[in-house]
Amino acid sequence: LSFHSLVNFVVCQLFALLTAFWFRLYLHPSKTSPFVRHVVATLLGLYFALFCFGWYALHFLVQSGLTYGIMILTGVEHMHKYCLVVALGYLSFCQITRVYVFDYGMYSADFTGPMMVITQKITSLAFEIHDGMCRKEEQLTPNQKLLAIRRMPSLLEYFSYNCNFMGILAGPTSSYNDYIAFIEGTPCRHNKDHQTNGKTNGRHKQDPSPNVIVRKLATCFFSLMVFLSVCKVFPVERNIDDDFIANTPFYAQVVYLYLSMLTTRPKYYFVWTLADAINNAAGFGFNGYNSDGSPRWDLISNLRITDIEFATSFKMFLDNWNIQTAHWLKRVCYERCPYNPTAATFILSAMWHGAYPGYYLTFLTGIVVTLAARAMRHNVRPYFLGSPSHKLLYDGITWAGTQIAICYTVVPFVLLSVGPSMKFYSSHLQLRPGQDKAKQFDNIQQHRVTHGVKTNIQSII
To answer: Exactly one of 8, 239, 280, 322 is catalytic; which is it?
Structure first.
């Protein structure tokens, strides 16, 4: 993003944080009606969207309005399919025009970022209404029963869910039932069982501890400082620099690859943790109690940083990265697709992310890596469970393997274009122990002539 747009985004999120405290204190469910909370949350969300994206924010209303009309007019039997096609199609149209009609890789207002979250909400809601109003109880999984919606949302509830100020700019996605429970001040259904040490989840009782907000804001600040201080020290583009490839040993290239991809993650940690803190400040995100009786505020958290950085399997990494998107993909696609759900889920994820070819390269690679990781874990892991020392050795090896596999998989996602991505993969395939440096350089130069495409690095926002 341009510096101006980045400043707008951060300023809006900081104002949203302050507004969230005000919203919880002065428009608490015990003091005002759900109608007022819906109206205020929606109007504030649209104001922030207009401030950040100008009239592009109208796309949020058009996308939501079109799909609400489909829900009303088509009936519950098929509306989930129509909403998925229309919401994803409208998002894809906006992404394609933004990428190929406007400036490729560099644009002043990435209004499709919020649309990605709204698309998740629209489709999740449509499937949950279909489950609750069309399918029989015995046809649903336990999780689908929990999320099923038994009545059609009003227009105000629908726009409030999609465009509230807490999640309009950066999400995260939440289930409709959880959001309505937050607005009305009633306990979430899946939290009713989380009662320990005599504590209950009664009406209007749960407010976040200041320690939760402070801890998450401290994580935001630290992540931002790390990103600003080290992201330019290890630029991802250097992985495909001709001189770097020709003159750097293979092991050093692998180490640099890990460090360069590691330094791209703090910006996601900053954006997602700040979005989580905003929702918590408004009182949204309570998720029951820990075993020691302390409240959990991770209902809509999008990541678990420690589990990401120390992941010992591809699945563990994905389960803790962009958590709400993973839940959405599982509920909308993986659990419902009758044929090859793994491949279908990765393809849907690529389509949802956008029009850059690098996204498709990453998620197609992800299919292969996921299947390979499952096979390795199933066949190899049992041999290392005999003793703690063997298990520790296994964890160390799988941690290194997972991190490198993630790096190789995600490089096209960062480079965006086919040319740079294929140059990265082919340059590593060309390197062989003892190969003549001049020959390496000639091969790379020839590859550059054949596949050279300008590299563009996309920001998260």
So the answer is: 322
